[in-house]
């Protein structure tokens, strides 16, 4: 597994990013750039499909966008003025090339390619019914359910078939689809996962985050609305809203960790939200100390906010190696315990004898927090205070985020005092859930219909969880499944 | 493309070989050996599926069996006491990993794996109907049609669904299928492609040719009959014949070229049949000469037969390089014409001033025959007489053999005199169609219901050719097809 | 070429790092860890040699330590209790595996392996003489000159031969050598390149920087002195000083950019020196502004120092992608100009309408400075002031640093006003040479025998430059040289 | 290890083939073709060097010529009108890329590349002396000794240095050297290994065998004489003979097995010599039998000779697989004993109940002879008579042939009766040493100065064996040797 953030072994992971463009000669090349800018949303695999007016073309690869999709020979295999792509960190479905998106099918109406960010929470129930009626699945991805629902729908037009399919699925989905007639982008009625629209010259772009628009030089137009389908056919752009309206619940963790700091969501700079959370954290949980130290790199904006609010100097107390693009598998048993230092090393001369405040964005299992605290202790810190720029993560996510099972979440096992003991810190504090909403410009979290999906902190899931209620997903999907060696 | 026979650029190609075993601990390892013995039936790709009582496992690879399936790590990924495999030279369907067999599907009844030797001649018609009803194809292989027919059949039991499917397909098929309940081997009602059954201890084996039984040390039991399904469930072996009986028409070209000389078909040694054809050729087309020279290696048995019948000495007049496992792509334009000598070289000292008879098994396009004659001429042969151990190949095959389109067949363009001119020989002669049947123990070819499928020589096809009648296969299959880079 | 720092296309490059250990069972594994910690000193290739008491073993590879030397199978090929390794960014010699160090030779006295950080400035002259006397070179590396001088020395003992060799070479060298009798570490009389000694249990370690000691959990003992040879034979450690004493001149650029911020050199924390340079820069070149923005990542410590000194807030105005371990080669001409944003993107919401101060450690060609300024301008910055934490780089380095030829150095072509125009900034300023010495605790730069080698800023080279005076190195080395494809 | 002849596990192996050309634009492409034709002389590695008038270029690769040297990109890296190449089966020196020839060195006189067929029998003695004087070896190949002798020679001109070097070496060598002044081909005074000269238009070619001339379309001119140096400088060809004349002793095993049957040596067709040996074998050792069966492929010419002489029919009783270019490593222990059948299979229907005569060219260890006899027995042969077309192989070769140590040679352990028992045959007979000379046109083997080197049969070595007399080569060469992983 590839990893780049030094401490990302203990992070929740966004599973996917999507990027599509319609109306430019360099469609696939532009998608490659856009996916590269979204690489933080999924590092296991990537894929691009293009449509040249006659045929669909697809290339998929395990690994990063760079090294796979920055080669002229690959891009030349993806001709056409319409293209869409996907980066993936697997949620459901084993990691195999046939699960890498965009998924493609030859329907009676012509080719159909789909890229999906999110997770269908009743996928297993739907799959079971489809297989009984004779559908044959080629992947173990929940996304393939949508394709079969489209293929077997009794409606006439492709658009009606597609809406028929979406009405049967529950959960989170931001989708970019390609058909011979055009590109369709859509977002589930709750808008759990993000999706934005941009323009570059005459071409229309859809992307998971605004940073991907920036990187390709495109202009941000607006977010795709929750429950909206945007249909692009050449120069014609139509919008339809086939679902009953509900209050949206976008994912709050996009602000905490998933999105890049240079993205804009709902008119807010992610960077400034994170600084505001840090400042709120300093107000709620002050401490007398000599240095504010970010846990690199995701804790840095909150640490700057905390330092500016508290007046305690911001310093680089942990130096991370630039060369952790690939995990270094340490050879030989004797040296295996030295591992963590390969990624980051205490700035010993700075820390010795000082009272330090470590700022991180979240704690999942707590294992790396423990290692960081011990590293600071070993480097001679006088006191170590850990401050976390989100509330305790107590619940699993079923909407396209890779969370460990609940039993492994530190905050599900311990209260704050127990967590403090576990990580060996002198003190530990989290921003409150209301504090988090404050940093987002709200007065507090609304009891009824809160503005965001914050189920990972509160357990308040905005949809039914059909597959969870019926059985364990692992058991179901592995039943009689073929393993491809 | 890999090639081993020095002159095989101008041969018809058998497209597939199949091998399956039920009831042994080393099932996948045994299949690997069996496929290696059948490698001459398909060199582009190979695959093995196994079933361990719970799960199916599959490994597929482009290239030869050796180098891909002789590795312990691969075989360990294929556990179970039941396994089946396939070697492939593509007929329909582009060459991509997803077309490599065995194909697999998760049906409502459980897993289903299938390996197919032959060609479904109404596959496109059937596919079009299936797609209209919502089936999604994952390959461009005609074999996948059978799987979807099984999946969508309205019969209750898997066996009934399977028979229902086979009743809808036309053409040639020798199949080995694996289901959680057992292995099914079957052969189309005309028995166009071969399939034999053997035993090794308690285990049952199915294979395209007896040589694969020899190589794994198994005993030959009998051929699977045309129109027969043999069902193996543990120790239980059942046979059913669900089709109306018709007179069989096995492929006569298996005797001419496809099968290995050490195989036995219908109680006849392929080697002795080829010698008999050579002897018949000497009787029908004698010539005064000094040397009989086989075109290596496929012409050798017939050349020995011709030499023994005629009394003219058999000599190695063409030396083939051992190192042509991979085509040598000659670099540089200036030397490109030297190509043919890399594979085989005239034994100059032997040939100079002599009248030579070259014996080959067949002529397809005639291009390499021309090169061989010129090589002999250049080496100083006084006279060059070409004798061919089969009748002129005038028609395409639609039953699982790779034939060039008719317009490229030398015998479809010219009569024997024109062919002689084309290849620059002093004389050229073919064994007659009746002579070929004589070498097989018949008095002559029967006008009505001849004993073999000899359509490539006679144009007398034993089935309807639905897809051929409707349109060109190329056009149909490429319509809206996705290209995987 | 691999690159990690987003703007490192325009940096001087340290060419090498070395690491050796004597007296532990896991010698090669420890060297792999140490080299990983020194990866910033050379990313093109790496090598490790070990000695098991009987035989020497070597593995070399192009690319990073991770991915090449973190595999158990590789480490198992490197048995023994003594090992040394090298990371390389090529200075002299083409990039080919045979140039990757450690270099090895079978001498009459036994095996001899050598890892070299630095550059021999009379290598061509010496090589020419050696070849005339019959020596055959296997690499184009300057380091091989040392081996041939040892092999052909007329002294008796290996140590005498080695000292005889070193007395003939000019330039910079920190060396780790392995012989059957023990490990020898040494540093040239001026101590231009760094080399430190540490301890881990009973074993002795030599490394280019202290960070490598930290990472393997070793204790820092002391620097190897300029002109000192340290000889380790089992438990015995001896030190000899065979050169006439001269005032040392360690490289000042190690403080500016080469060394990792968490290393300690001559009792100074690199991080704190860089902060001090930033503070000095603020004193010398103040500016009224809203934000201090580091050019990531090498400008960050100086930016913190500048911000703390000036009271202007430190903010992340440039967001760098985590996924630039490999350069993304942008496919398609149309999108090629978008390149720079893949690596780093302006934090638009933060910058718009603000007066910003960009802090970088140095300017070499000026090309990326121009891009950064333009990116800030495009993001809406009101004013852009560039401040550089080193004096203008006006001269090439001949001591093991990859510098562009003088004509390409921006500071060799323009004065500060011209440079300001070139990069399109509103203002540009450098710390003064005396200011740099001040940050290092000196009153100012001494006219006579300054404390550091600062030739890249001043042109004051501490050695003769024999090869430079005689001819161009390119011309000499390519003469009749064999190219290995 | 790659193997192609089905039974070649038990053959002596020629270690090398060489091919050089001077005076054509496509020099390297032509060398690639020539080496491909000489592939049977060495399958482990290959290399080509070219000289473009300014620089030497070299590419070396493990494995076959095809797949490595048939790529345009490789050939383009080898520009120039002069080129030489080498195929190698390692004799002395481990198998590593740096041992692959041509070897190259930068001498004071310019570049020097050398390709060597043979073995220097005093290489270790010479190497020891050279290392003592300061020479550093980069390979473990005996050939490098020649280069260092040239480099350190005190003569003035390169030609004098080269002759000085050759006068110091003992053993067998056919060499092709390239210098900036021209190409030098030479053969040791005894002419142990072959070397021929040809012409293609204006260019001059040197090759190990005439078949390589045939394949590239060149005309055979003459053999390079034993003790002759041929120097090609542009259009100028000079010949010098710097050694005292001695009676030549070319290797007799070239006729028995090494050379291709379509080569010509000393005006004799190898194919016709082998047929003559087979006929002589039939005269000396007749047997009543039904079939003559060649052990494929090397036994075939002798089998044809035996069959023609005896009147017993020649038949293909052993069918070899075309797909043994790579050894098939049989997975799983249970099936490992099935191995031999993968390569060749008894033609059961032919053999059953028959008295068969197996013809092979030689027996080395006897292990595969045993397997073949058992395969025939198992296929139902009534009697099995083995006839060998060479005398018993009783002695090792030290002139560039890979022979097992004497203790493993079947003929060194047993007399013919014991050998017959060992291989389980009904009878076994060899052609006599005088019979072998007869087939070569001599009356008998001369006691004094026999016409060929036949040491492997007689133990009569034509040179002193310095290294053998002093110690074991294994011990010497591994002393302090570096292993490259």
UniProtKB/TrEMBL annotation, chains A, B, C, D:
Stored InterPro entries: GATase_2_dom, Ntn_hydrolases_N, PRTase-like, PRTase_dom, PurF, PurF_N
HAMAP family: PurF (MF_01931)
Protein task: Catalyzes the formation of phosphoribosylamine from phosphoribosylpyrophosphate (PRPP) and glutamine.
Organism per entry: Sphingomonas qomolangmaensis
SUPFAM superfamilies tied to this protein: N-terminal nucleophile aminohydrolases (Ntn hydrolases), PRTase-like
Entry's Gene Ontology molecular function annotations: amidophosphoribosyltransferase activity
Ranges where the Glutamine amidotransferase type-2 domain occurs: 16-235
Residues annotated for Mg(2+) binding in this entry: 298, 360-361
Family matches, as PROSITE patterns: GATASE_TYPE_2
Similarity section: In the C-terminal section; belongs to the purine/pyrimidine phosphoribosyltransferase family.
Keywords: 4Fe-4S, Glutamine amidotransferase, Glycosyltransferase, Iron, Iron-sulfur, Magnesium, Metal-binding, Purine biosynthesis, Transferase
Protein's UniProt name: Amidophosphoribosyltransferase
Pathway annotation from the record: Purine metabolism; IMP biosynthesis via de novo pathway; N(1)-(5-phospho-D-ribosyl)glycinamide from 5-phospho-alpha-D-ribose 1-diphosphate: step 1/2
Residues bound to [4Fe-4S] cluster: 251, 397, 453, 456
